[in-house]
Design goal:
28% strand, GMP Synthetase, Chain A, domain 3, 15 helices
Length: 515
């Protein structure tokens, strides 16, 4: 199989004059972008980076981020993207865990990067205007001329390492080889019926598997990646209209916001013919609204993960709302008992179980980075145990129902209840707290904290407590429910399912916080 550097060369050779990337006023063809990637490759070599080194990128979806991603593919570097909203300790953890040799950052992530002591011992590269000068700059790296753009990696080299949170909230590195990434991108192209010259809105973050897939899939079809650093619905509509976006691949929350903006802004969205969503369930109501407004040729529900990009696919999302379809073209899946020790303990159709996927699939990872404990939990008998629950209906179609470990998925982000409970438990008025996700049309799930109080406190005070902590904003509870008791099993385990079902005694009216 080709590596990703040669994959990009394919587009340069087939369609050198075809538009490749758009970022505001910057619009480059494949030949022009290739020349700029070549200049960055030379700059990275001058920085002392070599094949196999890990490069941390803490940036939004801008031209420089996409260019760095491709430059790393040519050099055999392992691009390691991180949420640009990360805290200094999270940046430091990733630098140490991945043994990073260089970090790229911009103004929005400057405080976190420079505030991480671990960043002091590696090369730091700023992108755009930053508050504190020092270290190298992206512009300087690209000003030293260009060597011939020659791939130095092969399909067996590592291409990417994504960090994903587990039940403890401790990030796990997911290293993926060039062949895994290319197979996933090819599968994405096939399953979304992309044609030559597609144009996609590049707003799903490049630290997320959905964003990476959008970037790579466009190169496979000589398409256009239209950068959107930070989502806002009106801006997205403006780009859809001005850049003639043909396909959207988003989490349900973003579709919800786009529909809301369309009520106040007349926009030509007729260029959009293909829709896909992943990262969280889409409610029936939202599904129908999106179908009615866009009237796409194709509406795809994609279910997968960082570890195995596509587990299942449903190309007729509206026909059976909530259905995740059947195994993708590079995958096999099974449903096993929730407490299954191995892959052969399958459940019957209609019975809820844990979803597992075959690790022999072309898109499957080979194990977590430096986490034998996580490998032991998730990789058994040649199958990946996703931690997701679901069932297969009488037609043979998969429905995903939740998480074995109670992970909340809100707006496409994985949120550990433990992190939030730990913060809230430090408030003097909180006696006990349990956090779970409740269905929400906009977010997929909204974070709700159920609180047993020691003395009087309201939602506003608890929200202020969370804002003053190191809890990331998207993890803050959006609703507080005060209860007389937190329901537990005889052995003291919190029964979150009872909270979700409303089986509790309220202590006072619900409190809702601002977003």
């Amino acid at each position: 199989m080709l590596d990703l550097g040669r994959t990009f060369l394919q587009s340069m050779e087939r369609s050198p004059a075809a538009p490749a990337i758009v970022d505001g006023d910057k619009k480059l063809s494949y030949a022009e972008w290739g020349a700029e990637i070549a200049r960055l490759v030379r700059g990275l070599r001058e920085l002392g980076l070599a094949r196999g080194d890990r490069v941390l990128a803490v940036m939004q979806n801008r031209y420089e981020m996409a260019t760095l991603h491709w430059a790393c593919q040519f050099m055999g570097l392992v691009v390691t993207p991180l949420n640009w909203r990360a805290k200094p300790e999270e940046v430091g953890y990733c630098i140490q865990d991945a043994q990073v040799k260089a970090v790229f950052y911009e103004a929005v992530s400057e405080e976190a990067v420079l505030g991480a002591p671990e960043a002091g011992g590696i090369a730091r590269v700023s992108v755009g205007a930053v508050r504190r000068e020092g270290g190298a700059s992206f512009e300087a790296l690209c000003s030293q001329g260009a060597d011939e753009l020659t791939p130095c990696a092969d399909s067996g080299d590592y291409s990417l390492m994504l960090y994903t949170s587990g039940t403890t909230g401790k990030p796990k590195g997911v290293p993926r080889r060039h062949r895994h990434e290319r197979a996933a991108a090819l599968g994405h192209v096939a399953q979304n019926l992309y044609r030559t010259g597609e144009r996609t809105l590049g707003v799903m973050p490049l630290y997320h598997t959905m964003g990476v897939r959008s970037l790579l899939s466009m190169a496979l079809v000589d398409g256009v990646f239209v950068c959107m650093p930070r989502f806002d619905a009106r801006g997205a509509l403006a780009l859809i209209e001005s850049e003639k976006i043909s396909c959207l691949y988003l989490v349900p929350t973003l579709y919800h916001e786009i529909l809301g903006a369309l009520e106040h802004r007349k926009t030509d969205i007729g260029s959009v013919r293909k829709l896909g969503f992943a990262g969280a369930p889409m409610s029936d109501g939202l599904l129908r609204k999106v179908q009615q407004v866009f009237q796409p040729e194709l509406f795809v529900n994609h279910y997968g993960s960082s570890e195995i990009y596509t587990v299942s696919i449903n190309q007729r999302a509206l026909d059976k709302p909530g259905c995740a379809g059947r195994a993708g073209i590079n995958a096999r899946l099974r449903l096993v008992r929730l407490d299954a020790a191995g892959p052969d303990e399958q459940v019957e159709r209609g019975v809820e179980g844990q979803i597992i996927a075959d690790l022999a699939g072309d898109e499957a990872f080979e194990g977590y980075w430096n986490r034998p404990d996580a490998d032991a939990k998730s990789m058994r008998g040649g199958w990946y145990f996703t931690g997701d629950t679901g069932y297969i209906d009488g037609d043979g179609d998969l429905f995903v129902t939740g998480r074995v470990d109670d992970m909340i998925i809100s707006g496409g982000e994985n949120i550990s209840p433990v992190d939030i409970e730990s913060v809230l438990s430090l408030h003097e008025a909180v006696d006990e707290v349990a956090v779970t996700g409740l269905p929400d049309e906009k977010w997929g799930q909204r974070v709700v904290a159920f609180v047993k109080r020691r003395h009087a406190v309201d939602a506003g005070e608890l929200d202020a407590h969370c804002r003053a902590s190191d809890l990331l904003n998207f993890k803050r509870p959006r609703e507080y429910v005060f209860v007389r008791e937190i329901p537990k099993s005889p052995v003291g385990k919190i029964l979150r399912r009872k909270l979700v079902a409303g089986e509790y005694e309220s202590d006072q009216p619900t409190g809702v916080t601002e977003t």
